[in-house]
Structure formats: C-alpha cells, structure tokens
Design a protein that fits this description.
heterodimer; A: alpha/beta; Glutathione S-transferase Yfyf (Class Pi), Chain A, domain 2; Rossmann fold; 2 domains; four-stranded parallel beta sheet; 14 helices; 9% strand; B: alpha+beta; Ubiquitin-like (UB roll); Fumarate Reductase Iron-sulfur Protein, Chain B, domain 2; two-stranded antiparallel ribbon; 7 strands
Chain lengths: 295, 325
C-alpha cells in the first residue's frame, strides 16, 4: 500500500501547537509515510463556520478536499476537529450528489477545481495503526515504554458521529489503545477517555471548560495513568496548556504529563526531544518516563 | 447459553437521608440477544425482589428504562446483552446528571423542568404561518422522534460540569418549535436561546448524537439553532462572536488568526482576564504570530464568499420523508 498523503495539519499545528506538527513529520519520515504539503489549503472552519455560514463551510471544505484529490492522495490530518469537519463534508458530498453539484457550481466560478468526492480523509494515527506494517513499526520502537501506564484521550471529533469517518469510530474505536500497546505501554481504562476536552467552549464557558479538563485528567490519574496522550492538537492545548488553569478552578493539583501521540511515539523511536518539541509541554514528562527507564 | 455477570449499582437512602451506593454482582444464564430489560426482570423475579428500576412499554417508545449500560446511557429494552458485555460483564448504573432516588431510578424532575423552560409548545405571534406545504416537515420530522428518555441528558459532557446548562433534549425540542412554520415567536425564542447556559453552552462533543436511541441528533439541531440565531442578529455573546471570526479570517488569510481571535471573542477586558493563561502560554513560546501563514489563492475564497452572499444556497440537512405504509 502506498503511504503518500496530502498533509493537512490544521491551524493549531501551524501556530500554537507547532510541536505536534514537528513530531508528526518526524515519525512519518521514520515510518516511510510521505506527507505532501497543501499550499492552497485554508482553515477548515472548525465547528464554527458550519454555524455562521453553512454553505461557505462546505465550499471551503470542497476546495481543501479538491486540492488533495488533484494531488492524487488521501488527505491526512493531526487535528480531530479538522478531521471531523472535513469528514462531515466529505460524507455529505459522497452521499448527497445534488449537494456536491451545487457546491461545485459555486467553487468553479471562483476558479477552483471541482471536487469529485473520490478521496478519503484519515487521521495520521489511523494510518500508523491500520496501514503501516506492524513489523515495520515494531522495528522502529527502540525505547519501548516498559509498561508505562498511558491514558488514551481520544477526543470527541475522532469518534463522533460514527458514520462519517473512514475508520472504526464511536464506541468501537481502539486505535489509541492499540498504539499504546505497540509502544510497549499499558493503556489505562478510565471514564474520561471518550469525553470532551472543552476546547470549543474555552472562551464562552471558561469555568466549565476548565472543570472538564480537571475531571478528565483526574479520572485518568485515579485509574493509575502516568502520562496522557491525545491524537488532537486542540485536546493537547486543553488538557496540557490549560491544565494549570484547571487546577486553579478545582483547587486541586493534577500534574499529569500530557503529550501528543506523535510526541510519545517519537520518544519511543529515539527521535530527539528537541525535534519533538518536548520543552513546549506544560507538564514535563521526563520524570515519568525516566522512572520507567524509557529515557 | 452463556452466563453473564450483571454488575449493578445499588443505591439507597439511609435513615439519616444519605445516599449509599455499592455494586452487587448477579450471574444469569441468558442468550446474547436477550435484552438488558428482560435480564433485569429475571434477576428481580428469581434472585432479588428488592432491585428497583423503571420500565413500561418494552418497545423503545416510552423512554422509561434509560440507564447507564456499560458506560453509556441506553434503553434497557432496546439493548442486547451480548452487544454490551465486556469480558462477560454488563455494568448497570442509574442515569448521570440527575439525582438518584433508588438503585437504577433517578428523579427526572430537573430534566423536565429544563424542557419546560424552553416552552415546548407552539405560540401565537407575528411570525405564524397559516398555510403549510410539504417542506414544513423537512426540519421538524427527525426532532419529533424524541421520546424524552433523557439518554442525551445523562451522557452530556457539559451537564457533567454545569448544573445550569439546559441540555440537548430541551434544545432539540426548542429547534423543533423554531423550525415549525406555525410558530409565531421564532425571533423572541432565538433571543432567549442566545442567553448563557442555552444553545451556546453546548461543547459540540456529539455525545448526544451517539447516545440518542431515536436518532434525533440533538447537536445537529443546536447547530441549526445557532445559525438561525446569528442570522437574526443575536451575535453579542462570546459563542457567536467566536463563530463569526472564522469566515472573516478565512477570506483574509485562509488560516485562522489565533492571535486576534481571543480579543475578538471576549473583547479587550476578557482578553486581559485571560492574561494569566496567556503568560503561561508565553513562557512556552505559544503566543501565535499576529500574521499567520497566508494560503495560496485566498482570492478564490473571497470570490466564493461573495458568490454565496449574492446567491445563497440551501445546504441544510433535511429529514427523510415519512411515507405511510
């Protein structure tokens, strides 16, 4: 299977969460995954554009999907909300041909290549767990996690609504758990694994968002987690960068190192912590990893 | 037939009025296609007559038997044991986000009071249509499937941290009324729904879409309410301001301008209040550039936007037509 993709990192990975992009590129290179850049791609509009300008949101998605289609590759992303937004639009284009015609009619007038609804939308995590040869992955893992207890935090937009995704989603999703096992860690079962990080209400319902972060982290810690990983740049920001703010709201120390899945995978592949942007994390994972003898 | 363990949360109130809780295991030999409700009835009749749960229609119509089944809220009458057993164990607990009365029974009063808060009935008024065509059903039909079972309310991630949030079922019902051409107070309703703890407090986690046993998709109704609210000019809250920032940035930059997004969503004072967090981000080199990367061909996006403003197209999902058998 050819492992070439049109790479759509999303706005957060280009700005606040750059380390996720660095780590994704580094692990992809190790695994023989080619990520082609998409110079024309814009912001996907996230959850918001679909609310404020529903037709424009679909046109923006069609333009992004069309660029990947013109390259002849499936699209791969590292942001759950980009994944859900583009998968939602793609699902509608594939199941509602009249809608696709209407949107193409508009984008063609603006000089954009019409979208034929022929490509699939993947998360890089799915590519690694479902498309990379497990033997190749195993060979690259030079520093296994030695039973490290890792809490998988899937993030809502990697899971729901189930029917729009080009991979196993909803309650059946297990890719993050499988990756943790492949890295030599122990996946932690905890209540918050498929719940909400609150990112999209960070500003409108600030206290509630921070309470969500605290609840999920404390549920993971209560189940024995030593670190947490997510496949999403926005969950990273909420569960990592806002963990301190969450501690202030609930009046309780959390202190749970949170990493992007590609960062932890990169560590097991012995990629330098500089390349993986580990110093940009808010809770330093070094002691948790050193205690297990991973680093 | 396989033997399953039913791990049931037993709840009771002590004489001092305190709620006590523990799990008790019951073994039962049933086929994988037995419903959880039938299994519960069998346990009650053959093993423990004190086990308390709600039930009525047995047909996924009344919504009485909603409970937490293996971590998710489901109707016991509609759920097969084999589909939810994990290593032979089916874990049962009362619905969340509601006060527990006994065992698997919760007080559904707070849930219904929130549904009443949105006035779940049509009102007379200036926006009332008196003639209807078939398209009137396009937006209303799937929401009218709601049976008020409370599954979405129990699994709602916002309600876990907010007692005030009105909840997915009430908002789906609000959309059902706003989308009905016969409703006379659509604009006033959208104004009220734009208040705090109403439609803008949904975190968009889509848990309600997954939990709903009747495919109502409450979150999709919330998205449509927000679209209608903004179109009526109710754009003062941070939720609406945040949503509106996106189409401006996409036309200007292609990418989102994360540097100015904060100020545009919560205003200067709100941004100052966020400074504690901002300082924390700054230390990690995480303050974004005020000049984000500009995508190639941004003018195409501006043109698309203009075309759609000049000639709007309807892209809303529509309920499937219901044809009598």
């Amino acid at each position: 299977m050819s492992l070439e993709f049109a790479y759509y990192p999303g706005c957060a990975a280009k700005q606040v969460q750059k380390e996720a992009d660095w780590a994704a590129r580094a692990v992809a290179q190790e695994l023989g995954i080619t990520l082609h850049s998409m110079p024309q791609a814009s912001c996907c509009g996230a959850v918001s554009l679909r609310e404020s300008k529903p037709a424009f949101a679909l046109a923006v998605a069609a333009r992004i999907l069309s660029e990947a289609e013109a390259q002849g590759h499936p699209l791969v992303t590292i942001c759950n909300t980009c994944l859900q937004t583009l998968s939602y639009a793609n699902h509608r284009f594939k199941t509602e041909p009249d809608l696709l015609d209407k949107i193409n009619h508009v984008i063609v007038q603006a000089g954009v290549r019409p979208y034929k609804a022929s490509i699939q939308v993947y998360h890089l995590l799915w590519v690694i767990t479902d498309q990379v040869d497990p033997a190749v992955l195993q060979k690259k893992i030079q520093r296994p996690l030695k039973g490290l207890k890792v809490a998988p935090f899937y993030g809502c937009h990697n899971l729901r609504p189930e029917e729009i995704f080009d991979a196993k989603a909803g309650e059946k999703a297990d890719h993050l758990d499988r990756l943790i096992q492949q890295m030599g860690g122990t996946p932690v079962a905890y209540d918050g694994h498929d719940k909400c990080c609150g990112f999209h209400v960070m500003l409108s319902d600030a206290t509630e968002m921070r309470s969500m972060v605290a609840k999920n982290c404390l549920s993971a810690k209560g189940a024995g987690a030593e670190v947490m990983i997510t496949p999403c740049t926005l969950c990273d920001m909420a569960m990592g960068a806002y963990q301190k703010a969450a501690e202030d709201v609930v009046g309780q120390e959390i202190d749970l190192p949170e990493l992007n899945f590609a960062q932890l995978l990169g560590i097991t592949m012995n990629i330098s912590t500089e390349t993986l942007g580990i110093r940009r994390l808010h809770v330093d994972p070094h002691s948790a990893l050193a205690e297990r003898g991973v680093i | 037939m396989p033997v399953y363990t039913f791990r049931i949360q037993r709840n009771w109130t002590t004489e001092q009025g305190k709620l006590e809780s523990h799990y008790r295991d019951y073994s039962l030999e049933v086929s994988a296609t037995t419903t959880v409700l039938l299994a519960l009835e069998e346990i009650r009749s053959s093993q423990d007559g004190t086990l308390t749960f709600r039930q009525s229609c047995r047909s996924a119509i009344c919504g009485s038997c909603a409970m937490k089944i293996s971590g998710r809220t489901r109707l016991a009458c509609k759920t097969h044991v084999g589909d939810v057993a994990r290593d032979g164990v089916v874990e049962l607990a009362p619905m969340a986000n509601q006060p527990v009365i006994k065992d698997l029974v919760v007080d559904i009063g707070p849930f219904y009071r929130k549904v009443h808060k949105i006035k779940p009935y049509l009102e007379d008024g200036p926006e009332q249509a008196h003639t209807l065509d078939k398209s009137a059903y396009d937006q209303v039909n799937h929401v009218t499937q709601c049976i008020m079972c409370g599954c979405c309310y129990s699994d709602c991630t916002m309600l876990e941290v907010s007692k005030e949030f009105v909840g997915p079922a009430a908002l789906a019902k609000a959309f059902r009324v706003v989308a009905d051409p016969r409703e006379g107070q659509k604009t006033m309703r959208l104004r009220d729904l734009s208040e705090p703890s109403m439609m803008w407090s949904c975190s968009r986690c889509a848990m309600c879409v997954e939990s709903c046993p009747k495919d109502v998709k409450p979150m999709e109704a919330i998205v449509k309410l927000r679209t209608r609210g903004m179109a009526k000019g109710f754009v003062d809250g941070p939720g609406a301001k945040h949503a509106l920032a996106f189409h401006q940035d996409i036309q200007k930059w292609g990418d989102l301008n994360e540097f100015t997004l904060l100020q545009r969503t919560v205003g200067i004072l709100g941004a100052v209040a966020e400074l504690g967090t901002a300082w924390h981000l700054l230390k990690k080199g995480k303050i974004p550039s005020p000049f984000p990367h500009k995508a190639e061909g941004v003018e195409e996006l501006r043109r698309i936007y203009q075309l759609l403003e000049e000639h709007p197209i309807d892209v809303e999902t529509k309920a499937k037509e219901v044809v009598p058998e």
